Every structure is written in C-alpha cells, then in structure tokens.
Amino acid sequence: MRPNRPVYLDNQATTPCDPRVLAAMLPWFTEQYGNPHSAEHQMGQDAAAAVETARAEVAALIGAEPREIVLTSGATEANNIAIKGAARHARRMGDPRRRVITVATEHKCVLESVADTAEDGFEPVVLPVDPDGRLDPAVLRAALAEPTLLVSVMAANNETGVIQDIPALAAIAREGGALFHTDAAQAAGKIAINVHGIDLLSLSGHKLYGPKGVGALYVRRRPRVRLAPLFSGGGQERGLRSGTLPTPLVVGLGEACRLARGEMAEEAARLTQLRDRLLAGLRRQVPELQVNGSLRHRIPGNLNITLPVPALDLMRAVPELCVSTGSACSSAAIEPSYVLRALGLTDAAAARTLRLGLGRFTSAADVDYAAAALAAAALHPALNAEA
C-alpha cells in the first residue's frame, strides 16, 4: 500500500529537527532575543549563559572541555578552519612541515580544503582506501615518512557509512609528528566518540536532529593546537570564528547533543535491527544486490547498495521514497560518485547505487515499504529492459 506521506530514508543528507530540540530553541527566537555578546544587560547575559550551557553539551558528547569547542555555521566551516587554519598558522611560524594528508573518500569540503593548501606552499596528499572503504594504517604510516603537518580522516563516510579506526589512525599520526583532524559530522551522536588523541574534530547540528546552520570545531587545548582564523571580525570564539552567535541555533545544537548522548546506545541497537531487516527484505527479492563498503564497520542506519537497474530510474519509479544516489552536497552534478570509484566500483555500477539512510523517526513499516517498493521497481520488466 502506498503511504500517505513520503518515506524519508535520506538521513545522511540531513535529519529532521527533533521536536524537543525545536521546543528548546523557540524562546530564544521570540522572548529571549538578546545578543549573547551584549554583556551589559540581563538579556545579553541570559543569552550568553544559554550559549555556554549548549557549548558544555557539545563538549560532553565527545569527551571534551567546553572551552575547547568553537561554534561555527556547520561542519563545512569547521573543516575549513581546521585544515586551512592549521596550515596558515604553520606557514606564519616557519614550520618546516609541508605535507597535508587526507583520504580519497573524504567529504568534498575536506578534499577541497586540503587541495587549497597548495596555494600556501603545502603538499596535498590523498591516500586510497581498501575495497571495504577503510584506510589501511600501513598506508598512512608510509605517507608519514615525509614531515607532515596534518592528517584529516573522517570518522564515518557520508555515502557508505563506513567507520574508520580513528583511535588507531590518530595514534599513527601522533607518532609521525602530525596533527590529526577528523570530520565527525556523520558519526557524532550515532556512535560513541572521544577526542582523546585527536587534535581537531568537526561536527554539524543538522546531522544529529538539530537545526541547520550551526556546528562546532573541537580544538585541543593541552597541548594547545594553534590555528589562524579565516576571516576578521570582533574576535568571538577565541578569535577563531568572529561573528554574532545565533543563540537559538546554538541552543538547538546543545539540546540535540544532550539527547544524542542519552539515547545513542538504544537508538543504535534499534537502527541496526531496522537496517538488517531492510537488507534482508531486499536480498530475498533481489539476491544480486551488492552492499558497498564494510557492513561490520558502519554507522547503524546506513546502507549503500548497488542494484541491477539505474538508481535514477528506481527513484523515479518510487517517488514517495526519499533516498539518494550519493552526497547531497554534490548532487547538483549528476555524475558517478568519487567515493564509490575509490572503493573500486565502475561508473556503470556507481550509477546503479542508492544510499539508504535510516534515522530516529524511521519505523519498521517504513523499512518494509521501502524494501517491497524498491524490489518491485528493480524487478519491473520495463526497468530491467532499460538496464
């Protein structure tokens, strides 16, 4: 039976704002609208206190200190500050390390930020991944034979959901004398993360049921990681990110982190069961489907699957199902996913691949409908004839 509302399975692109998060935010739009940087009066002081409470919740989610959290507009800005900020500070200080290392499956904003460091005289290095989507620690260790300033490896991939062994990779980077940054936008709030051994970490509100337009960068305090700010202003956020903080969005980020910390383990178990149910339902009817990336090392709600017919045809055949072919941040250009290419998929196979992202508000009924609808479309004679 066709549902009376869209079935949303694109939670890696964005998550809906949790109603509890919205309720926490609303007063700061309408009643408590003071500028958090206006320390001279009560409304400004109240807003500043709300910001600091939220900052503490962000820190608690990742095992950091509140003063190590720099609030940003999202993970893209945080990634840019981490990578370019580290490079520009090192150049100003005459640091001889000139290599900046990342991985072929990183988010575009990390790949582009690393590439941009070449303009400042750095050597961008992009490492390959194994067919399961993970970086071989030996490959990183070999790359660190040259003096390296920074290594950036995402915690969980935005397309495949594959989880990297961040503690092990961070330790290798530290042994090699490099800073270690991780883009944790897809991992924060979904799997346990602790910043021990990590120098820089980025996260985003709208990936963990918070609002769009807000995120954070963890910057290790002891020993202190030094960054150069990317733009000038009033010196807010320890001088690293000038600009008036959006109190309602920051409050929403804090509440989203608080909820995630309390509910993560139970939600991960539920999503793992739903994901396995979805995969089993699809495999019963379309046994030739392929799962891309490690199924063992993967965030609970993600499936990335290659089917026997073109993904765009499947999506047109089931318009009430909200899924995607890859990263929403690069979907304007319909071309084979560079992430899937890095895993060894051909362009033809990548064009037959869907990303299914389950989330907090996904039900068993949603999963069963998606499995039946996708299988029916994949087996439809007309689509198979086109394939």
Can you walk through the features of this model?
- The chain has 387 residues and is of the alpha/beta class.
- The protein has two domains: 133 residues, Aspartate Aminotransferase, domain 1 (Alpha-Beta Complex), CATH 3.90.1150.10; 240 residues, Type I PLP-dependent aspartate aminotransferase-like (Major domain) (Aspartate Aminotransferase, domain 2).
- Helix 1 runs antiparallel to helix 7, helix 2 packs parallel to helix 7 and helix 7 crosses helix 11.
- The two termini are 26 Å apart.
List keywords for this structure.
Aspartate Aminotransferase, domain 2; 12 helices; 387 residues; three-stranded antiparallel sheet; Aspartate Aminotransferase, domain 1; 40% helix; alpha/beta; 13% strand
